[in-house]
Design a protein that fits this description.
Blueprint lengths: L7 H12 L7 E5 L5 H16 L5 E4 L31 E5 L11 H6 L2 E6 L10 E4 L6 H11 L6 H14 L10 H11 L5 H9 L4 H12 L2 E3 L8 E6 L1 H7 L10 H4 L7 E9 L2 E8 L5 H7 L3 E2 L3 E7 L2 H12 L5
Parallel strand pairs: 1-2, 1-3, 3-4, 4-5, 7-8
Antiparallel strand pairs: 6-7, 8-9, 9-11, 10-11
Length: 337
């Protein structure tokens, strides 16, 4: 990884890698397991850009269960999506989106290693530097920023379908443009995307403001069991809660619904750090970490085999939910900023 972002040589190498594949060659696009808006939006937007360049043999996928979160199911380019088992066996070119470590590719990692050309597009400071040509920019607000720049360098003109995908990616990873990484450059990119004719209000309602009634009931239940620990993080405070597979079953909700729980939890004024522990399997938990600035939660996550950003990170924990949170609490002082 290049801490200051891709060099001119890396951009040139990425362009050359893409162009090394003919328009009739197999091109495989991959994003991380349990994909979010940035992963899917960046991948599908880039796939549509390749289609505009004349590439005809394109497939997009991600490891694990082939379940696209509801808000992203109708993104332009969703027709490119296939289950991991239907990925190309020996693609000429592999492009990876929003993946900080090779482990997040699961069984698909071998496709990148075996392809004649590969490009990794990412914005996580914790990126391990795996893969072929690395386009990793920790200063970018979303992987879609990197994807849009590579499309520009390839000569792809934005249209409304590409723009919608990239806008969804940008909006989700900036918390609907609320987070600190929302810079002048982010708003300038959003303006270019909106100029293609997309409707940001409609997109925001679909992505952020539309949930089943059961999801609302589940959220209320999970928030009701939240615990505030004012002494954690050197007195800056920590708030945490958990959600189980039984919660999902009781309210008839899919797993992706749990991904949004961190947003209301992180709004607690008395806590700098917020933690949501979501059951993925018996004894296995997906842990989301957020900080308002006092703690580098990426350090906590990396120490547990995960990754992310200074103010937003995650990892997989094992045991009981309270045990996982105790581990997090014990690490916070070590990563005070």
């Amino acid at each position: 990884m290049t801490p200051t972002g891709p060099t001119a040589e890396q951009w040139a190498a990425a362009v050359a890698a893409v162009r090394s594949a003919g328009t009739g060659d197999e091109v495989q696009l991959i994003c991380h397991v349990n994909p979010d808006g940035d992963a899917l939006g960046s991948m599908l937007g880039f796939g549509l850009g390749l289609r505009r360049l004349g590439y005809t043999r394109l497939r997009a996928t991600f490891p694990g269960d082939f379940a696209v979160p509801g808000p992203y199911a109708d993104l332009p380019g969703s027709g490119l999506l296939v289950p991991a088992g239907d990925a190309f066996v020996s693609p000429r070119l592999v492009l990876v989106f929003d993946v900080a470590s090779e482990s997040r590719l699961g069984d698909l990692a071998g496709l990148l290693a075996g392809a004649p050309a590969g490009v990794v597009l990412d914005h996580h400071a914790s990126n391990t530097g795996f893969g072929g040509v690395q386009l990793v920019d920790p200063a970018a607000a979303a992987t879609s920023v990197v994807a849009e720049e590579l499309l520009r360098r390839l000569g792809v003109e934005l249209d409304a379908e590409i723009a919608e995908c990239l806008y969804v990616a940008l909006a989700t990873d900036t918390g609907s443009f609320k987070f600190d990484m929302t810079t002048v450059a982010v708003h300038e990119l959003a303006a270019r995307l909106i100029a293609t004719g997309i409707r940001p209000g409609e997109i925001s309602r679909r992505i952020f403001d539309s949930k089943p009634f059961g999801a609302m009931r589940l959220t209320g239940e999970v928030l009701g069991r939240a615990i505030l620990d004012p002494s954690a993080a050197g007195g800056r405070g920590m708030v945490w809660t958990y959600a189980t597979l039984a919660d999902l079953d009781r309210h008839g909700q899919p797993p992706y619904i749990l991904d949004t729980l961190i947003d209301p939890v992180r709004s607690v004024a008395e806590a700098d750090v917020s933690v949501v522990v979501k059951e993925a399997a018996a004894g296995e938990w997906s842990v989301s970490l957020r900080s308002k600035g006092a703690v580098d939660v990426s350090g906590v996550a990396i120490s547990q085999g995960g990754g992310g950003h200074r103010l937003a990170a995650g990892f997989t924990g094992y045991g009981e939910a309270a045990q996982v949170v105790d581990t997090v609490r014990g690490l916070l002082d070590r990563y005070l900023i």
